[in-house]
Design goal:
By secondary structure, this protein is of the alpha/beta class. The chain has 10 helices and 21 strands. It has helices at 47-51, 106-112, 123-133, 151-159, 170-173, 201-207, 222-227, 246-257, 267-275, 368-381, and strands spanning 2-4, 12-17, 22-29, 31-41, 59-63, 67-68, 87-89, 92-93, 116-119, 136-142, 179-181, 189-194, 211-216, 232-235, 262-265, 279-296, 302-314, 321-323, 326-334, 340-345, 350-353. The strands form 3 sheets. Strands 11, 12, 13, 14, 15, 16, 17, 18, 19, 20 and 21 form an 11-stranded mixed beta sheet that branches. Strands 2-3-9-7-5-4-10 form a 7-stranded mixed β-barrel. A hairpin with a 2-residue loop joins strand 18 (321-323) and strand 19 (326-334). The N and C termini lie far apart (53 Å).
Length: 382
């Protein structure tokens, strides 16, 4: 990515997809060029949490909501220390933010962090194209990166970028050093959380329940995990292809062998799937947004949930499976397309979901999953 910090509101820009389709608009945020995988998010709110979610590393996010930036940017809502999206695509950016918590505009924040974006394009047409053709590589070009450059040369640049399939990215976004999020109120449990791209709200949700969370790097070993004497182990969300995550899979198998209560979300769900012997695959265009209906098959309840995943677990929906760690079943399923959204072991305390129960941003329907993790640790202690 190359950027400059010149005013972007009137600078022409172009978005180039790897299949050759282009969209012309105006620069939004920084001016320059950027590349990534084009994906769309259906959330109408929570753009600041989306931008700072490490799971969006190397992805260019297309917002389906037409008006973006209304509430500006503040210093309280980021899910990490920086914006992780590779690029940002909006139709109609707000000219002036209107929210008492805002400290600056979204355009200013994108420019400050060097995030190249584009506005003024038909995001409905782009979203439909991605739904029909699938997520694909993309480039955004503005300023000197576009002026006088042949369209064929821009397309060649896009095609030269790496695919998301086969990408091993979790270590690029995870913490390098272990840190501790203290329990809020009385400490009840200690959890070792393997950071594969964790969002800030996730350990906070556990802290609210009296859990002291030790957040470990993605490269943590089983010895590192058990050095903190955990009552439970957590594997976080994160970017990239789970088929490349052999290290975390091996570590999770070590945790399962010790029968420690285990909870995984998003990438952590895919890691559990692989640890149990299931495969993973890339979805055509993925699930991204805060309005996805998921059924908890253990209760029959349907939750509206927050998602950000382009890969899924390939596990049978219609039967209980035998695994090296006992019986396992699909516990949650997406009602839009029957994609596996959760797994649970029946013979030991381990479960996972593919979506984001921390509700940042998103509905609070799935918050009970943190209570379910607490119940597993309580039962193990008893």
């Amino acid at each position: 990515m190359t950027t400059s910090t010149r005013g972007a509101s009137k600078v022409p820009a172009v978005l180039v997809l790897e299949d050759g389709r282009t969209f012309s608009g105006r620069a939004y945020g920084a001016v320059g060029e950027t590349f990534g995988e084009a994906v769309f998010s259906t959330g109408m709110t929570g753009y600041q949490e989306t931008l700072t979610d490490p799971s969006y590393h190397r992805q260019v996010v297309v917002m389906t909501a037409p008006h973006v930036g209304n509430t500006g940017v503040n210093d309280d809502d980021p899910e990490s220390g920086r914006i992780w999206v590779a690029g940002y695509v909006v139709r109609d950016p707000a000219r002036v933010p209107s929210n008492w918590r805002a400290t600056r505009t979204l355009d200013e924040e994108l420019e400050r962090q060097g995030v190249v974006g584009i506005s003024g394009i038909d995001t409905r047409a782009l979203t439909r194209h991605l739904r029909e053709r699938g997520a694909m590589r993309v480039g955004i070009f503005s300023g000197d990166a576009w002026t006088g450059v042949r369209a064929e040369a821009l397309l060649d640049k896009v095609k030269a970028q790496p695919q998301m399939k086969g990408a091993n990215l979790s270590a690029e976004v995870a913490t390098k050093e272990t840190y501790v999020v203290p329990a809020i109120g009385t400490k009840k449990f200690t959890v070792a959380a393997v950071d594969l791209g964790i969002k800030g709200m996730t350990p906070h949700r556990m802290a609210e329940r009296g859990i002291e969370v030790h957040v470990l790097p993605a490269t943590a070993t089983a010895e590192d995990i058990y050095a903190v004497e955990p009552d439970g182990v957590f594997f976080s969300n994160g970017p990239g292809d789970p088929a490349t995550a052999d290290g975390p899979v091996a570590v999770m198998r070590a945790v399962l062998e010790r029968r420690t209560p285990l909870f995984g979300i998003c990438f952590g769900n895919q890691i559990l799937g692989r640890a149990l012997g299931f495969g993973t695959y890339k979805l055509k265009y993925g699930h991204r947004g805060i309005n996805q209906p998921v059924q908890d098959r253990t209760t029959g309840k349907v939750d509206v949930t927050a998602h950000n995943h382009g890969f899924a677990v390939d596990a049978p929906l219609d039967k209980v499976s035998d695994t090296p760690f006992g019986r396992a079943e699909v516990s949650h399923v997406c009602l839009n397309d029957q994609v596996v959204e959760g797994l649970q072991l029946l013979d030991q305390p381990a479960f996972s979901v593919q979506y984001h129960p921390e509700a940042a941003a998103g509905p609070h329907d799935a918050a009970y999953l943190f209570d379910r993790f607490v119940s597993l640790m309580e039962a193990e202690r008893a």
